[in-house]
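ok, trying the design again with the full structure, not the truncated one.
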């Protein structure tokens, strides 16, 4: 009896794995490239050309903020920028004040 139960499960699993992957997100919703890619891809076309690869050593020096000749984790992966605020005072709140209804 167990082989009869197992067969539908295998067929179901095979159909799930055979589905096509989701399409990539639209260009506007794509996160920005990491800083390393930004400095290496000097023409910002999304690909590294032979010239950009040849110039990689000099390009990477732009990330060395403290100019110690090394790229630290903080220099390679800086923290993300804060999310935009939606409040009136810049921190997402309106200081507890009620807004008056439109007239």
């Amino acid at each position: 009896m167990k082989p009869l139960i197992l067969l539908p499960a295998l067929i179901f699993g095979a159909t799930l794995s055979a589905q096509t992957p989701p399409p990539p997100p639209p260009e506007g919703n794509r996160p920005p490239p990491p800083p390393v890619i930004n400095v290496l891809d000097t023409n910002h076309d999304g690909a590294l050309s032979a010239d950009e690869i040849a110039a990689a050593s000099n390009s990477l020096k732009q990330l060395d903020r403290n100019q110690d000749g090394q790229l630290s984790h903080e220099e390679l992966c800086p923290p993300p920028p804060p999310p935009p605020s939606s409040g009136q005072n810049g921190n997402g709140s309106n200081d507890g004040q009620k807004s008056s209804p439109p007239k």
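Keeping the full-length input from now on. Residues 2-17 form the longest helix (16 residues).
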